[in-house]
């Protein structure tokens, strides 16, 4: 397929690369700045533009991978000029309807993954969640998705909002716990890699057990002595104290629910 | 060495097993209940007792792997009867001094890992943090530690408190984020394994990048639209809302600090 990439961020870069490797033609890259547009166009060996009115017509798919905050505006501006081509966006938390009234055929192509500029990722493993305005559009989106991923599913906009929220907990909040852990280790001059065996095991366990069955540590039984001492250690760090406190109470509450269900059996 | 295991929980089970596999003799298991004491003694093929005054004398090491809340009491009761043997506890957040005045030679043997009854773990990968009352005691503790782990380090009680707090963030809080993610997925009838590629990638990234460099998602730039909508979706879940809100503000604050440092360069 001939594809125009709207956007040149981390996701656009990884996805553009995967599409090219799968044998598609990336016909053009559009981005707001010459710097980002030319960087991605260079990687994909294709032309670029920074002007919406210079976006090529005649491609099969226009793939919008841009910040949520500019997606609606760009959809309204670009989609009306692409004729019967398929417009897709890649945003987990945005509804398909940002294209309604602007594009004839449209949908969502949400690859649920965390993308960085500097770390490559195996696209075939990434679950891609699809939605489209009609069956023909869905068929085309599915063909595109299956060419890059071995894990393609249908999901509507209402459900995808929850999926994206679940991903924020399982990825962004998890990563932030690592960042705070590193901050604490810095106080005793211990490098973060000391945590890797514990981190890896924590993840390995949730491949085998439901997370609430896997929980350990002082908050499960709400050990007041440990929790009190640890809150004291976070004096002067209001963000971390707040997170520690909210997490500990919530862990304890889930553990109590679990015990209660066990008793009722 | 001849070792008596005080305690029969997840850590005692995994450690007792590793010690036996390393060729040590576990001479006895003590635990508060016949059920837990006999279960571990059965696995280690050794006698057990539930009475502190029946704990064997003449072993080389008495290894206390018990809840923090009962450690002091058991140390005071058992350590005075073991002569010159080495008393060790395995609690990350408890000071070595729980043995002071009760044991002649003592120390801490903290294997930093999350232990479950039903998932085996490769003990050789686990970092073990040691501390002891004198050089001879340290030598013995180190010999024991090196027989089960390839990753043995010295750390004093003051630093170990921070290490343990960092572990609570990197393991228990991370696991709780997974548990909450699973809760959200349950609302749309999606099984948790859909998150595995994202979870695995999030962890893979912090083996390559400092966690704060790896962060992505709506909180980095504090995208008010996404954050507002996601908080609305958590209406009726006060724990999750509180965690979502505290995490998002804290992620944004770290990202701002990072940008500020970049500008100053």
What oligomeric state do these chains adopt?
A: homodimer
Overall structural domain count of chain A: 2
Q: Give the termini distance of chain A in whole angstroms.
A: 56 Å
Number of strands of chain A: 8
Can you put this structure into words, describing what you see?
The structure is a homodimer of 265-residue chains. Chain A is of the alpha/beta class. Chain A has 2 domains: 2-155, NAD(P)-binding Rossmann-like Domain (Rossmann fold, 3-Layer(aba) Sandwich), CATH 3.40.50.720; 161-264, ProC-like, C-terminal domain (N-(1-d-carboxylethyl)-l-norvaline Dehydrogenase, domain 2), CATH 1.10.1040.20. Chain A is built from 9 helices and 8 strands. Chain A has helices at residues 10-21, 34-44, 68-78, 135-148, 157-187, 196-206, 211-214, 224-233, 238-264, and strands at 2-6, 25-30, 48-49, 61-64, 86-89, 105-111, 127-132, 151-154. An 8-stranded mixed sheet of chain A has the order 3-2-1-4-5-6-7-8, with helices on both faces. In chain A, strand 1 (2-6), helix 1 (10-21) and strand 2 form a beta-alpha-beta unit. The longest helix of chain A is centred in the middle third of the chain and has 31 residues, at 157-187. Chain A starts with a strand and ends with a helix. The model of chain A has no long low-confidence stretch (mean pLDDT 95). At the A-B interface, helix 5, helix 6, helix 7, helix 8 and helix 9 of A face helix 5, helix 6, helix 7, helix 8 and helix 9 of B.
């Amino acid at each position: 397929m001939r594809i125009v990439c709207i956007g040149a961020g981390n996701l656009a870069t990884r996805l553009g690369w995967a599409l090219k490797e799968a044998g598609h033609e990336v016909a053009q890259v559009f981005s707001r700045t010459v710097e980002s547009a030319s960087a991605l166009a260079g990687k994909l060996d294709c032309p670029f533009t920074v002007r919406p009115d210079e976006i090529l017509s005649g491609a099969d798919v226009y793939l919008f991978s841009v910040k949520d905050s500019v997606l609606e505006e760009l959809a309204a501006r670009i989609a009306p000029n692409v004729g019967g081509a398929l417009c897709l966006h890649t945003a987990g938390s945005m509804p398909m309807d940002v294209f309604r009234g602007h594009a004839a055929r449209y949908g969502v192509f949400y690859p649920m993954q965390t993308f960085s500029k500097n770390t490559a990722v195996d696209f075939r493993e990434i679950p891609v969640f699809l939605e489209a305005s009609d069956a023909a559009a869905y068929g085309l989106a599915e063909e595109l998705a299956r060419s890059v991923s071995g894990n393609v599913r249908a999901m509507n906009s209402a459900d995808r909002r929850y999926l994206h929220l679940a991903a924020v907990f399982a990825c962004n909040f998890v990563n932030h716990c690592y960042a705070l852990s590193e901050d604490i280790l810095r106080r005793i001059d211990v490098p973060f890699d000391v945590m890797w065996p514990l981190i890896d095991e924590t993840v390995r366990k949730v491949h085998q057990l439901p997370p609430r069955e896997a929980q350990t540590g002082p908050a499960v039984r709400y050990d007041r002595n440990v929790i009190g001492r640890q809150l004291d250690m976070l004096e002067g760090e209001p963000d971390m104290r707040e997170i520690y406190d909210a997490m500990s109470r919530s862990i304890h509450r889930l553990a109590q629910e679990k015990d209660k269900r066990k008793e009722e059996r």
